[in-house]
Design brief:
With about 450 residues, the chain is α/β, with parallel strands linked by helices. It has 2 domains: about 30-35 and about 70-230 and about 435-454, 3-Layer(aba) Sandwich (Rossmann fold); about 260-435, Rossmann fold. Helix content is about 40%, strand content about 15%. It is built from 18 helices and 14 strands. The strands form 2 sheets. It has a 7-stranded parallel β-sheet with strand order 3-2-1-4-5-6-7, sandwiched between helices. The chain has a 7-stranded parallel β-sheet with strand order 10-11-9-8-12-13-14. It is globular and about 65 Å long.
Length: about 450
Amino acid sequence: MWRLFYNIVLLLVSPVILAVLLAKQRCRRGLLQRLGLKDCLSGLSGPSGQSRRPDQPGRPNEPDRPDRPDRPVIWVHAVSLGEVVAVTPLVKELQRRHPEHRILVSTVTETGREAVEQRLDGIAEHCYAPLDFPWVVARFIERLQPCLYVFVETELWPNLLWHLRRRGVPTVLVNGRLSTRSFTRQQWAPVRSFYRTMLQGLSLCLMQSDRDVDRIVALGAEASRVRRTGNIKFDQPIPAVTEGGVTRARLGLQDGDRLLVAGSTHSGEEEMLVECYQALVTHHPSAVLLMAPRHIERAESVEAMVRARGLAVQKGSTIGQVGGLQPAGPRVVVLDSRGELAAIYREAVVAFVGGTLVPIGGHNLLEPAQWAKPVLFGPYTDHCAEIADFLIHARGGSRVLQAADLTKHVLALFSDDEGRKRMGQSARQVVEQNQGALQRTLEAIDQLLMPQCR
């Protein structure tokens, strides 16, 4: 019943979905893949880039098709940038353990595509995730013929999961989490019934925390198929600082400059951060604020807001250009490039992680903690609740409630070198003491790979 109802609703809204995809320029790229009209693997070729030879048979009782991959495919789905970053070590290790497989990573967004191409070049292939129309996912799966489907952080698409189940393809949720907001919305009995039809077909649900385990079981997942493996973000390698990468000189920092890094910020937070910075420079004139908007297309509007507050400001991409801002004195740098924030935290005196002073739910608190930096964040940490609790308990992070509280904490940390160092080391210990989720996840996936995939 639920499958029929879902597809009727989907059919009714399909003109709106297609209109939105066509209207937004950033969504037009990959539209043919999203609609199942273009192959999801480039050339559908083998490891040497050659198509399967005629003497390489297909599966038993299956017609030989020249467009079928000659190696079994593991399909990993990661929605956007954050999920790709989280799953990158997992994909690399899967490729190392199972070199006889091809790995496809699908994303929904352009930032996700860019992250796959930058971080997994030569390891995995990228495609855009199919729209969840039954005829689209059926064609996608038929062409791809995956032997395993892995998806990140509870990205549930009903038709996709139903079709995979019908074909007997194991499905694994990794790094699973359910935010309080999502879980509350799903408590209405009909919604819970709908979720049960999807969750009961999952082969494994590998969840971040005990809270997430309890919630997904309450929504209908089979308890015997649910495990707490931990958060694979703890196992992220420290970003390499390479030649041509992020350096103090590239950020326009002088020897005495001390950097306050505010990462993954949103509108509403940036104004509070500027207010905090204006108070900070009255006591620490060498302080420089670097803000990295979560959505870099907002960089110009953030720059305009800072300038309106009377501060010198420059986008990171223009530092060093002729006629640009001279890197001296109080100033704000607005980062307008992707993929550099994690390495920039290395240069921070104090780090603030955004999406937490406004009701977003929070972003990656572990990126500054990896570099042994004290981590500040606001009250809205539902997306990273366990990590926030770990940091607070270990005294490696502090929760600030509003602008005045943020200013108080930043001033105290800039003035206390020893206290700041202890706090940073505690943050780093939180990362080290909670590693191991990646290994547990890989062991669970290895047990599920079908015999014909081996």
